[in-house]
Amino acid sequence: MRALARHGLADRLLERAxxxxxxxxxxxxxxxAVRTARLSGRWHFVYAQxxxxxxxxxxxxxxxxxxxEDDR
Length: 72
Fold this sequence. Notes:
By secondary structure, this protein is an alpha+beta fold. About 45% of the residues lie in helices and about 20% in strands. The chain has 4 helices and 4 strands; from the N terminus they run ααβββαβα. A two-stranded antiparallel sheet has the order 1-4. A two-stranded antiparallel ribbon has the order 2-3. The longest helix has 16 residues, at about 50-65. The two termini are about 30 Å apart. About 0% of the residues are buried.
C-alpha cells in the first residue's frame, strides 16, 4: 500500500479497500486470530486482486498508452 501511495496509485484502494486489524488461521478445528494492528500498530487492507490489476492497468494506460497482451 505504501509503495502504491508513493507512486500515486493508492487512491482507489484507499477508497474501496477494507482496513483490517487482524487475520485468522483456521486449523485443527479452531480459530486462531493474529491481531496485526495491536502487534505492529499498522492495519492491512483487503482489496481484490482483479481490482488492483484493473487500477494499475488504467493508470498505465492513462500515462503511457494502451496495454497490449501477448498470448504466446
